[in-house]
Amino acid sequence: MARKWEWRNDGEEEDAMMYVVMPIEDNLKSKDVEFKLTPTRLTLGLKGEAPTVDDEFWGGLKVVVEDSGWQIERDEKMGRSIVVSLKKAKTWDEWSYLLKSMDTPADTTITQKCFFDVTIGGEAAGRIVMGLYGQQVPKTVNNFKCLCTGA
Known about the structure:
The protein has 151 residues and is mainly beta. The chain has one helix at 138-149; strands at 6-9, 17-23, 33-38, 41-46, 53-56, 63-75, 79-88, 112-120, 123-132. The strands form 3 sheets. A 4-stranded antiparallel beta sheet has the order 1-2-7-6, with no helix packed on it. The protein has a 3-stranded antiparallel beta sheet with strand order 3-4-5, with no helix packed on it. The protein has a two-stranded antiparallel ribbon with strand order 8-9. The radius of gyration is 23 Å and the shape is elongated.
């Protein structure tokens, strides 16, 4: 299921901010917004509905609540939106993800194997067997398999 919001990292300037942008209908007002922020958690949604965002920040990272907030504005990409500004507690922390739930490990199920037989100076030196992650990158696996088998 696609997310109904996106986040943006403002870079690594000294006052680096992160932004959460959640599009809303034109008839919604600020009184319809449900917003709660702690140094380690964000909850954002509309009253009477399940929260759109409700999770801890990724990697135990924190925000400065007093320097963070939200407003309704028109976003170039998403239209009329709730825009949440989050001030990083430690400016130089790198946020690869905004929320803990976004950091999902890759599917490392090996679906196929290929091998290279190695020779050195005309003598067999062994075989290198590679497991391929077909559920993670199916087209790449198929292309690599074709290169290995000559098909």
